[in-house]
Write the structure tokens for this entry.
Amino acid sequence: MTDARQWVLFLILGMFSHGVLANSAANSLDFTLHKLGSDPNGPTILVIGGIQGDEPGGFTAASLLVTDYRIKKGNIWVVPNLNFKSIIERSRGVHGDMNRKFLSLAKADPEYAAVEKIKSIILDKQVDLILNLHDGSGFYNPRHIDKDHNPYRWGQSIIIDQHAINAPRFGDLASLAERASNAANKNITYDKTHYHVKNTKTREGDVEMEKTLTYFAIRNNKPAFGIEASKDFQTHTRALYHLFVVEAMFQELGVEFERDFKMTLSSIKQRIDNNVKLALFDNKVYLDMARARSRLNYIPMKKDEQVRFSASNPLIALIGNEKSYKVRYGNRSVTQLQPQYFEYDDSLSSIKLWVDGELKQVPLGTVVDVKDTFKIEPIEKYRANIIGYARRGIEDEAGVIVNRKQILDRYSVDRESRKYRVELYLDKKYCGMILVNFVKPSSVDLASTAGPD
Ligand SMILES: [Zn+2]
């Protein structure tokens, strides 16, 4: 497989509010590299998440960098899903611990190619510094405080292998880590969850740490840091702590950015939970799968073709065969898609839709917010099918005014019974769909009054 195919290309499509989409084949679990920023003067920071599959704080934070940050000065390269197979199987390492494979590795190891590839990215001349995001046990503290806060714990720490290295820039590891840690702690009110710098002094005989990714970088004179959030916290809390440290590092290194969410627990959680959008076959099927039902039936897939999909974030994978596909999002199981196969027709790109009495032109492959009713404007020769709506004697469901109560709850995409599929057909061929979203009356108000927490 070529590099171009493995390192996923991005499509910029307007309908995703954050504009970034990965396009890949089902069952592909190669890690992806995302290059943000285009500053010829650098610096270039490589951020890695998911070297172990059961540390969601780190890979979720890395994924948020890809989807929600715009780099104004400097460059950020992100690999948010290094051990993608282990991530979706929620395992530390399905083929053993990948973070022990950087000193020596047999060519027969199933992860040999991935390890070689990430090594070559680390050694890329443009990369100045590496941050490897982990979730660790308890709370590291240089002094023994209690069983959860002591020198043997890993959580809430910035890890260095040694005091300094001989690199062209940023070689003073200890002081850089110390400054970033202090800056991050300004955002953390509770002392016991403060960050500390942990020096593993790897060169002095730590045979385990010698095998790690960061020490591979150090041996090659590349500044590298492990960043740990505590496993005592839920995923979104860990991600928030990670980003406090990552942003403090950016500040120290002269990287400037804009971010699309607020650094509060509620907004980061909302962003993580809602960023689950999936498009199949260039948007012919478009599903917003936040709080999706565990199984979605009769998904119109394309006959005799391998499934291609785009997703709103790089932790989404589609795994299965022609009978059924599982949708995974990091460690989470999102839903299962049960396909129904059709020939596709490309002659229709949008439909006219009456939304609460107002006529709109709606492109296929998008979501339409509806308060009370919608009506599809009939198109000659084409047939509309509102999934879950049935009235005796009507085959084309265009031309009827429909409200939420008229559609059977269990046919919605989401568990709250708000999002429904409307599919368009030409004879027996499938043309595309829109997703009708019956909005909660209060949702607009809630969004605008959300305060800090
Ligand atoms: Zn780890």
Q: What stands out?
A: The chain has two domains: 31-271, 343-453. The pocket of zinc ion is lined by residues 52, 55, 134 (CB under 6 Å).
